[in-house]
Design goal:
Keywords: Signal. By secondary structure, this protein is mainly β. Helices cover 0% and strands 37% of the residues. It has one domain. The protein has a 3-stranded parallel beta sheet, with no helix packed on it. Strands 3-4-7 form a 3-stranded antiparallel beta sheet, with no helix packed on it. The protein binds 2-acetamido-2-deoxy-beta-D-glucopyranose.
Length: 122
């Protein structure tokens, strides 16, 4: 996966106000999504985030089971100075739960909690 974005905004779960960096190049807003249906990125409307293993949608966003649920985003490239902004509400801290992970098994960018703690790890 390669792509070039200056910023990427992922809204997985809910705030009423988004405090986004100006002009994000990619935005996935899962609030009000339809369970079982992909969410279309809202700036260029070409990329999809497809639900895998049954996450559910609600007014606050996508609810993941903490086991195997996730959303698979179509491949895109990023590089250079890149920022990520994401809104997440944890119900509990499982072992290294990913907020997001882009890339392959050895060359990736990920945000997760450390082990089963509330410490965030980049
Ligand atoms: C947590 O994940 C690490 C890394 O994959 C693994 O070594 C460890 O056994 C896991 N711990 C538990 C309690 O599942």
């Amino acid at each position: 996966m390669k792509f070039h974005v200056s910023s990427l905004l992922l809204v997985l779960a809910g705030l009423t106000t988004i405090h986004a960096a100006p002009n994000p190049s990619k935005v996935f807003d899962f609030r009000g999504c339809t369970t079982g249906s992909p969410v279309t990125e809202s700036v260029h409307e070409t990329l999809l985030a497809s639900p895998i293993n049954g996450p559910t949608c609600g007014a606050d966003g996508l609810s993941l089971d903490g086991n195997d649920d996730y959303a698979d985003i179509d491949d895109f490239e990023f590089g250079g100075t890149t920022s990520f902004e994401v809104y997440v509400k944890y119900d509990s801290f499982n072992n290294y739960s990913k907020v997001f992970k882009f890339g392959g098994s050895s060359d990736n960018v990920a945000l997760e909690n450390l082990a089963a703690t509330s410490t965030i790890s980049w």
